[in-house]
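Thread: Newbie trying to understand structure tokens

Hi all, I'm a second-year student working on a class project, and my supervisor (Dr. K.) asked me to get a predicted structure for one chain before our next meeting. I've only ever worked with sequences, so writing a 3D structure as a token string is new to me. If someone could post the tokens and maybe explain what I'm looking at, I'd be very grateful. Here's the chain:
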Amino acid sequence: MQIVESSKRMGVLIDSIRVLSIAARMKIKAEAVVVFALLLAAALPVANAYAQSEGATKLPPAQSGQNYARASEFLADHRDRYRIPTAITDANGEFVFHRVGAGEYYVFVQPADEHLPSAEAAPFPPQTGDTAADAARLEQYKKDFTKITVNGESPVQIDLRVRNPHFGVISGRIVNANGEPAAGANVSAMRTSERVFGTSMHTRENGAYRIIGLPAGEYIVSASPPPKTINGGERPKSMEGLLGATYFPSTIDSHNSPPVVVYPDRETGDINITLAVRSLHSVAGTVRKESDGHPVAGATVRLTRKAGEDQASGTENAAGIEASMSNYFSATDTQGRWSVSNLPDGKYTIFVRPAPVVSADAETQKFVEKRQDLTVAGADVEDLAIEVSVGGRISGRVTVEEGSASTPQILIAAGSAIARVGPEGTFTVSGVPEGEFPLSVIIRPPKVFYVRSIEVNGIDLLHEKLKIRAGAEIKDIHIVISPAAP
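---
Reply by user tm_fold:
Sure, no problem. This is what the structure looks like when written as tokens:
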């Protein structure tokens, strides 16, 4: 049995002393499920109780009427405030959460292979700042999901039932122009109504693929050749756009590809694609600090085709999926190396950014975002060197004045650099570019608080721009946030 792994960004603040296990049995007819146990702080709106976390392991669906084997459990250590308990049902529909702290939880249940936009798949009701709408959404959430109370002493037994999502499946085989299986090719299915990154997977050794968990509708199906391997056969950590894709059944123009219809509880098979013969290339390089030449790990590299170049002709008026899917992403390894594959000839722009903000105390390498032009012309590009500046640094503290609203999540942005405010109200923003720009304070949820003042060394940064030189450090910025008027 092949196990497919995925991660979801979400989290919950967990403050526990005693721990215990939660055992449960799930009733479900046809789909595996990922189960999230979420701690709800009674005094806080749900969305404000979240930090950051990573998610779950998935299983392929079993046959109708069967239960599901447990692949693994991704469970929160009660000392780790940035993770949540997560489990998958076993062959009997049972799951166990270990080391769960005392408190009140909602058990969020979702099919493991459900492909939904992130906003719809989020395990908590979003907070918009509209008090009435948020309250109504929270009440509906409480009705939809099971609430449990953990006392830290006694095990908890619960029984759950899960809706049948009535998913469909697309399957087929990818071959090269000579008819040989394209092992490791990337297959994508995008809903015609969305025109954004859809669901993707890699083909097996025989070129076969099977995309599960698809809501009913029409899809555009495409395939790209296997990416160029690195380090002696390792698959690069990258996500490809579709500039080098071949669309079902064998065309490089998505407009000539007939939509594939997915029906509830049915499999649409024989969606076979023969890869078109094309001149496609890879780009590989390293990211290093310009100050000392040390490699930068965990940086995000985005490569996008410049506007005005058509996929097929290389000249003008890119449209449809090709325009929206012209972005290629990669992440640098510990040696600062990155690579992307399946790029047609053309002019591109490379953007290099630090790793996304995960938490206030996350160990990430910060630097000033870098932009660099690149031309791909008839050959692979190797050993492309990109140097980044560590930039400036600002730090300070945030005071939240008391009010009826709960404590918000706060981010501080200076130019392209951003950081979270820690639990003690302090912040440090690294990788600040040289120049003059407003100091931005991002408050979540919006409209509940406002920024009353920003000061440093007698300067009113609420009305004046922040000025910083390369490599400089500005300390003791004081920001005051107050509750907004009801």
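A couple of things are worth pointing out once you decode it. The chain has three domains: 4-161, 168-388, 392-483. The longest helix spans residues 131-144. Feel free to ask follow-ups in this thread.
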